[in-house]
Amino acid sequence: MENQKKLAVVICNHNKAERTVNCIASVLDSEQFDVCRNLKIYVIDNASDDDSKTVITDAYGDKITFTYSAIDLGSCGGLNLGIEQALQEGFEYICCLGEEITVAPDALSVLLNFLAATPSAGLAGGKVYHRHMPHYIQQFGISIDFRHCRASMLYADTPDSENIPNIVYCDAISSCCMMVRADAIHRVGLMPTENFLYWDDTEWGYRIKQAGYEVVALGGAKLYHAASPMHRCDNTKVNYYMTRNCMHFFMKYTKPECCNKMSIVLLRSVFEAFYLHRMGHAHNMAQSDVSALLDAVNGVRGKAADDCILDNDESGLGFVSFFQEQEAVYMEDDDPFLEQVIRQINPDIVFMQLPTKDAVTIIRCDSILGIKDFNFSLEFSDNVIYIDKNYRMLATREDVDLIKSYEPGLQLFLYAMQPVVFRRIAEMHGMPNAPLF
After folding, report:
1. Taking Cα atoms as reference points, which of 65, 289, 270, 292 lies closest to residue 196?
2. Which of 54, 133, 351, 413 lies 20 to 30 A from 44 at CA?
3. HSE, side-chain direction, 13 A CA sphere, residue 312
């Protein structure tokens, strides 16, 4: 049959059987479209220690190929296991899905039709919405910013509208839903398993784009992600792998002539996270920042040592508990998404149209560490709070005192750590004795 080897779908599960079942169900609904008939679903169980195998196979055992890995391979390793199976069976296109994703019935056909009609495109993704707030976009492609050493989820937390383009040409696609042509995989290889978790999809997309393919996100392919923006991981693995792998990416791919500035930006970012965790008394998270930094500059890859992943003691500087206790707030700048988040925390809270002495005033900022004006009234901690884009809060006089000490500490940190980063970059570029800067 014409479509028999057209499309394979790979889903990696780790202790989320019910959500994986929902994901599979949404994929099977795609078969109503001719282009997606005879698709094959590979489910990789990545060392789950619950009843995932039983729940998934009881629900769809006759409609999927189920593989259990007794070893935790990380998200990229689990996906690669399914990708390799699909390649061996000769599929032309492979779609990777996260277990927390459900796809609209026509989403896979939109992606497949586009890739089939556009040989220059090697990787495609869709428009991902917050499932609990389906009018808000969670992400719509990934942009890599070498100037600021970060990868940004495009249109994140933005209400959907006609002003948002239908096609976004970008640098990478999140592994929660990405469809790739087999030819591109043969050219650049599988996902980078040495990342273990996080930045694997970003690096893979970047490599595919560097190989000459277009990377696109399509607004017509709608997907829904179950995770809440206030989701809190039980341990420090997200923080550790995000930090370590981000540093590795930019040390590896930044042009040598730009590495001096890059090292400062990276180290500033790590120190900022460390300092914020110190402010929030999140000592395990602060230790995770240090472990990730040391492992990055020492070239440690793959799965982290057990003592690097600790219990998550971060409270978000009291963000959730703070708003649970408030009766009324006033936002200086209109922010519908933040309002929705606060209402989820406290459905009874009242948003005032004008500031009053009985309502806390919320002021938004990029980072609370960037606040320079400390001429607050004596009632500052009761009447005014600052919230930055990562939901960090400045709400007490103690916070103010710590922020005043931030810049001197940063300068000492840069003085101590920048030579170490330089040495690692030189080693990665095969010039251990060559001055790059």
Report:
1. 292
2. 133
3. 13
- DSSP-derived secondary structure letter, 231: -
Tokens of 256: 């040598």
Whole-prediction pTM: 0.86
Residue position matching structure tokens 């540093």 = 247
Give the residues across from 351 on adjacent strands.
329
Residue with tokens 């942009």: 143
Rounded Cα–Cα distance for residues 175 and 173 (Å): 6
Structure tokens at 171: 């640098």
Q: Where are the domains of the chain?
A: 7-225, 237-314+405-428, 316-403
Q: Does domain 7-225 have CATH number 3.90.550.60?
A: yes
Burial annotation 394-422 (CB, 10 A radius, 16+ → b, else e): bbbeebbebbeebeeebeebeeebbebbb
250 touches 202 (CB < 8 A): no
Nearest C-alpha neighbor of 423 from the set 193, 251, 203, 266:
251
Here the contacts of 231-235 (C-beta below 8 Å, separation 24 or greater) are 232/312, 232/314, 232/316, 233/312, 234/311, 234/312, 235/309, 235/310, 235/311, 235/312
Q: What residues are paired with 128 via a beta bridge?
A: 139, 223
Rank 53-67, 272-286, 352-366 by mean pLDDT and report only the highest.
53-67
CA-to-CA separations, 76 to 105, 180, 248, 437, in angstroms, rounded: 26, 14, 16, 34
Q: How confident is the model at residue 375 (pLDDT cuts 50, 70, 90)?
A: low
